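Dear colleagues,

For the upcoming journal club I promised to circulate an example of a predicted protein-ligand complex. I picked one with cytidine-5'-monophosphate because it came up in last month's discussion. The inputs are reproduced below in full, followed by the predicted structure.
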Amino acid sequence: MGKDVIIALDFPSAEKTYEFLDKFTGRKPFVKIGMELFYAEGPGIVREIKKRGHKVFLDLKLHDIPNTVKGGMQSLRDLGVDMTNVHASGGIKMMQAAVEGLTREDGTRPILIAVTQLTSTSQEMMTDELLIERPIADVVVKYAANAKAAGLDGVVCSPLEAGRIHEEIGASFMTVTPGIRFAGDAKGDQSRVTTPEKAKEIGSDYIVVGRSITAAADPVEAYERAMRDFVN
Ligand code: C5P
């Protein structure tokens, strides 16, 4: 399980997405479809990218009352995605409902992970705007424990938190980590970022890389570099 680079396909249209994917001749990177592309193109884009042979992480971060999340997951279940997610802040009952909705009749289901705190969230924002006084790392570990209790497979977290999650929640509990930048890249709107090498050292299972690959002068070369630094 794990140790792969997932490219975030944060594009506004199918056309732009295929233009990007067509650069990867002969390679089929694991990709992430988020709300920008999904809301623009609908479920058909997921089926099409699966048909092209990619593994798909559908990153819609569901967060609603348990019954609604269960229904949403039932609709996603049949799309053939490999991985999808919810917000852990929806609570244990909501996450259990997500597991129920996603599980197929034969008992199998795609990987289900929970977002702990977004990697754009800083300690200051959490304290001042959300009135959460505890250190961000403690909040992330508690949300991860809730996700494990609800039967999920892992969490989305900052690579800086992946080590502590493996220590406290379990080595096999999956950590999927965005907030990745090559040394020298701009942080953009992310707060808690690190490099692919460092994420490997800390023990992330998957890294999610968006702009450092999609906005690179040579995206294929940037992907190869991330694979070299993180997987090999
Ligand atoms: O361009 P960049 O590498 O910052 O993209 C990171 C991707 O990971 C985006 O698609 C973003 O939605 C996603 N993500 C994140 N932080 C989370 C969960 C998902 O940045 N906690």
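Two points we might discuss: The radius of gyration is 17 Å. Residues 8, 10, 34, 59, 115, 118-119, 156, 178-180, 188, 190, 208-212 surround cytidine-5'-monophosphate (CB under 6 Å).

See you all on Thursday,
B. R.
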